[in-house]
Amino acid sequence: MGVKLLSLPRVVFAQVLREMQLFEVFELSQVSKNMYTRIKRVRRKLKPITVSHGYSRSEISATESPGCNFDLNFRFEQRMDSVVIRKLNIRDLKIEVSEKIETRKTFLCFEDQFLTVMIPLLKHLMDLFNMKYTTLLVNYDRISEDFFHPVFHKCVELNTFSLSGVPDQCLYRLMESKPMLKALNIGDLFEYRFKLPLTARTIPRILIEFAYSVCPVFVMNQEMITILHHDYEVESLNWLLKFWLSERNTKFQKLTLGCFWTPPNFDVLLKGVKYMEWDEKRRPRYYEYQETYFPIKIDCKDGFDLRRDDGVLATIAHDKERKMLHFIVWNQRQ
């Protein structure tokens, strides 16, 4: 099959490749150096490559379509009773594979190889396909010098976990080494202990797993903030709305708070605040934006609108499906 494909004209070869799954294309690239070179010239475009380094396993994954499912996975985990069934040629290295799961588009590899092959494998994928960007998910106490390599210079999303009790300096340094970050997800934010460096204040999107004070929302200058777990009272959120009405922040676009299993008491939330019910002539029903891998659409039909003195419109809305509360600022003056 490889020989027949290599004899195809360039345009036809590229069309055949585009109809193949990413997992199949990678397998095909292992056939020979000539095949690798032909595939490389097609420049098949991918979403940012995801690198995950956790306690139980590590993973390098790639996809070319929006969504949560990856089309090509290399999973590194402890496999005590496994044997090597094949070896993947990655530049000057060989990755030992214990199992190939085609239904999951995954190569199962041995955990002790991960840090050795991570950089060569990333370079290999970036060379084979059209993608120079990465996203990084790493347990905080597993950060090593490898994650400061230039291959991560174009990291657009950083996810860290288990911050409690660990010095912040390592995270600061990791963030400073990634000037193209567009999203930061951190495990928790204790205002009295952990302070975001100046670099973080230029990152458009921040997701916080746990936060115990409303104050960090205002000391950060992000476009979008998501806090999944929190201790916020409705009275604090009322103060948040009044704070936004009194300031002139032009960057802030959205605050999302999780754990709202039921709608908040809007009588308390909107106390002392002038608001309007939705009018389709004033603003759209849906608020849409793009995450790293997929688009998000929020229904704001049942939300309440607030207008600032400078004409900027915002909406506070409960998301029944996601069990979240959204505070959304529309891009233009309404």
TrEMBL record:
PANTHER family under this entry? F-BOX ASSOCIATED DOMAIN-CONTAINING PROTEIN-RELATED, F-BOX-CONTAINING HYPOTHETICAL PROTEIN C.ELEGANS
Q: What is the name of this protein?
A: F-box domain-containing protein
Q: Which organism is it from?
A: Caenorhabditis briggsae
Q: What taxonomic ancestry is recorded? A: Eukaryota, Metazoa, Ecdysozoa, Nematoda, Chromadorea
Q: Which InterPro entries match?
A: F-box_dom (IPR001810)
Stretches assigned to the F-box domain: 2-49
Per the record, the domain of life is Eukaryota
